[in-house]
Amino acid sequence: MRTHKTIYAALAANLLIAIIKFISGAATRSSAMLSEGVHSLVDTANQLLLLLGIRRSKREPDATRPFGYGKELYFWSFIVSILIFGVGGSISIYQGIVHLRHPPPLEDPFWNYVVLGLSLLFDGGSLFIAAKEFNKVRGDSSWWAAIRRSKDPASFVVLFEDSAAVAGLLVVAVFVYLGHLFNNPYFDGIASLIVGVLLTVVSVLLARESRSLLMGEGIADSTQRQIVRLVEQDPAAQKVLHVFSTYQSPEEVMLMVMLAFQPGLETDAIYDAIERIRAAIKKAYPLIHYIIIQPEEPPVKN
């Protein structure tokens, strides 16, 4: 049972940081800090949407959705990716352009540094928790391969968001320092543009992964081959012709096996074999909740 510790940690950190950033940005008239405030506010909304998606995905199947509501989580994770671009990235880029055209006078950066330090502490802590939790399921795979393989957007969305947050904070810190070092207010607008581009890249990556899940990713090829071997071990099975699968949620898989049975079997024997094979698959792969065994005629040899 997933505890979603990463989501709650990110939610608490982003809400607190957003408030602090907006206060500091308004006081110092820093577009970069205001952009970071928008970024944290969007991230806060994203955590709430992920929690909403998780809650709605847990609803029991009914007449309208006989296979359950698991894909709700994939839908809301896709909405999150759009929000990161549509709100976070766009506003940051807009703020950067405005402040490059009309740069405000430089203010005392002391409170900006204080807020950036606190934000790095909170966002860094949230990123550490997200990375630690994701590392538990990563195994020997690389981080990117594990993200591509993951069917739980709640884990990698937070990982992407927190990584972008920490990177954005470092960018803002460097450019705020450069702006005051060279007494150049344009550095502030440039920082906002970089943060906006960073959020846009993250949103595109998340949208691609969420879209793939929403459209129906199947089980891994290695798992499919293992299922084929398992099915063909049954004495009534002749040959697996096709295997179709799709993730209904991170914890639910639908599987359809087109199977040619041994010739001459009676209907009752085929029915018993189907029940036997279905039970064997469920025992070996508990995530496969829906299993359809479809008897088919074996291909005719030329």
TrEMBL record:
Which controlled-vocabulary keywords does the entry list? Answer: Membrane, Transmembrane, Transmembrane helix, Transport
Q: Name one GO molecular function term.
A: monoatomic cation transmembrane transporter activity
Supply one GO CC term from the record. Answer: membrane
Name its cellular compartments: Membrane
Q: Where is it predominantly found? A: membrane
- Membrane topology designation: Multi-pass membrane protein
Top-level taxon in the UniProt lineage: Bacteria
Keyword field contains Transcription regulation = no
- Record-linked InterPro entries: Cation_efflux, Cation_efflux_TM, Cation_efflux_TMD_sf, SLC30A9
What's an example Gene Ontology biological process for this entry? zinc ion transport
Q: What is this protein called?
A: Cation diffusion facilitator family transporter
